[in-house]
Design a protein that fits this description.
Blueprint: E1 4-7, E2 10-14, E3 19-25, E4 35-40, E5 47-51, E6 55-56, E7 64-69, E8 72-77, E9 86-92, E10 107-113
Parallel strand pairs: 2-10
Antiparallel strand pairs: 1-3, 3-8, 4-5, 4-9, 5-6, 7-8, 9-10
Length: 116
């Protein structure tokens, strides 16, 4: 069975801080970099942030960046904002239109508090 594990499971941070979310897959992803990151806000569908491990999807703010390859990946938010609150999850995929893995249990729940 193919799985993806993210850590930590929950992060609380202050606006302006850097946040890193790690994703480790149980085997190497297709082509070494077919890994996407999504953000899902309450009541909304997931939105693609990053594809091919480090390519920003159109409309993704530049404070988001992705890195890694094969089975270890990282999503970094530099200068996190209040609107970044939500569930983050990674997803590996193959070269075609069919996703090879989508594990909603492997989400990242990001909670924020305003800087004092």
């Amino acid at each position: 069975q193919y799985t993806a594990t993210q850590n930590p499971s929950i992060t609380a941070t202050q606006t302006g801080q850097e946040v890193r979310i790690n994703c480790k897959t149980s085997s190497e992803v297709y082509s070494g970099n077919n890994l996407a990151w999504y953000l899902q806000k309450p009541g909304e569908a997931p939105k693609l942030l990053i594809y091919k491990a480090n390519k920003l999807h159109s409309g993704t703010p530049s404070r988001f960046s992705g890195g890694g390859h094969y089975s270890d990946f990282t999503l970094t938010i530099s200068g996190v904002q209040t609107e970044d609150t939500g569930d983050y999850y990674c997803q590996s995929y193959n070269s075609g239109p069919t996703f090879t893995h989508s594990d909603k249990e492997s989400y990242k729940n990001l909670h924020q508090s305003e800087s004092q």
